[in-house]
Write a structure and sequence with these properties.
Length: about 80
Amino acid sequence: QHGHCLVTKSHDKDLSKWAAQQRRLYKEGRMIDHRLSRLEQLDFEWDANEAQWQKQLQKLQEYQQEHGDCLVPRRQGSLGNWVHA
């Protein structure tokens, strides 16, 4: 439906909790092999923070191509918030 495996609380609170639990199990080395394999087949995002950062960087690159600079106004939604954080 969304074309990615980066689940946020705003999309689905329960699924977001579950995804966070899978990330924790993976980081702790406690992920069962067949579950790890199935999640990797889905291109599951193991580092949600890095994935979000990459997503915003892509938006910034698109903004720069369109406007010729990276002077994103604060009012430019999530990209504006990210640039000014």
